[in-house]
Amino acid sequence: MSEGTMQRAAQRDHHSAPRAKRLNRVLVCAAAVPVMFLAAACSSDSGSGDGGKQTPSADAKGPSSASASPTVQAAAYAKLPGACKVLSGKTLGDLVPKGAKSAKEGTSSDVSSRASCSWNSLDNNGVKGSQFRWLNVSLLRFESDATRGTGEAQAREYYQKQVQDAKSATDAKNVKSQPVSGTGDEATLVRYDLKKKEGAFKQQTVVARVENVVVTLDYNGAGLAGDKTPDADDLSKSAQAAAKEAVAAVTAANGGKAGAAPGSSSSASPSKAPSKSASPSKSASASASASPSASKSAAKS
């Protein structure tokens, strides 16, 4: 190799060396870039994970809030008195003098929610005929339920229905109604005449509500076989007095003072707590098997 050729080769080597060093630095830097991106990505993922734990998202809170069950005010009264014991012996002696011991308790699958009792009396006066009396007391208690509402609201609705049913009794004549004071939270007397082949019957129906309980008292009388028809006003007074006594028995059975006005301190009941038997089905079945209406009461005569 000539001296000139060797000189040019040495120059090429001399110029290529810096280029090789620069190329190596570029490759090293290029290789380092993915590592930096990877580290940054890992750092970002880690941070978002910690943040998710410290600050739950709105979506995470949603299900727990939506699953909260709605609540209603607990029913005031949790039980009923024995239906055949709501009236005293004296009261029964006045209303059904010949049948005070003829009490017949109605069938019920749950006596804490619904109950009834009836009495009948036939006072035979020989050739002058006889006096007939029939008395029935029905009690219906409503439980508070999230889907049906408070026990008091259900009782108020049923109370109004009972009054309307009594006013629209089949074959009733001279129908009259009036409010009754001093008997529960609200009470109404419905009275009418009913002509049957046995005689002329005078029907009295008192519907009363106290808290979440509805009391329906049916009382009718007739003079049979030629005996005189009883005085409707006398029967009405007796029916109202008996209904007031039955309402007081409901209050007393729940820890209140018999005869105390609903809502007063003396009638505050320790049982004003949610009943263990709260269920919509029980309330619905109670309404379906409620006390006999005024028309049925007269028919039984």
Secondary-structure class: alpha+beta
Instruction: Encode the helix/strand succession as letters.
Output: HHHEEEHEEEEHHH
Mean pLDDT: 77
What profile does the largest beta sheet have?
Answer: 7 strands, antiparallel
Q: For the terminal residues, how far apart are their CA atoms?
A: 146 Å
In helices, the fraction of residues equals: 40-55%
Beta strand count: 7
Major sheet strand order: 1-2-3-7-6-5-4
Calculate Rg over CA atoms: 43 Å
The domain count comes to 2
Fold topology:
Elements (H helix, E strand, L loop, with lengths): L2 H52 L3 H9 L22 H7 L8 E2 L8 E11 L5 E12 L9 H17 L5 E7 L6 E11 L2 E12 L2 E12 L7 H22 L26 H9 L5 H7 L1
Antiparallel strand pairs: 1-2, 2-3, 3-7, 4-5, 5-6, 6-7
Can you summarize this structure?
The chain is of the alpha+beta class and 301 residues long. Helix content is 41%, strand content 22%.
Give a verbal description of the structure:
Residues 26-44, 56-60 and 261-301 have low confidence and may be disordered. Helix content is 41%, strand content 22%. The chain has two domains: 1-52; 83-300, no CATH class. The chain has helices spanning 3-54, 58-66, 89-95, 151-167, 232-253, 280-288, 294-300; strands at 104-105, 114-124, 130-141, 173-179, 186-196, 199-210, 213-224. With 301 residues, it is of the alpha+beta class. Strands 1-2-3-7-6-5-4 form a seven-stranded antiparallel β-sheet, with helices on both faces. It has seven helices and seven strands, in the order αααβββαββββααα.
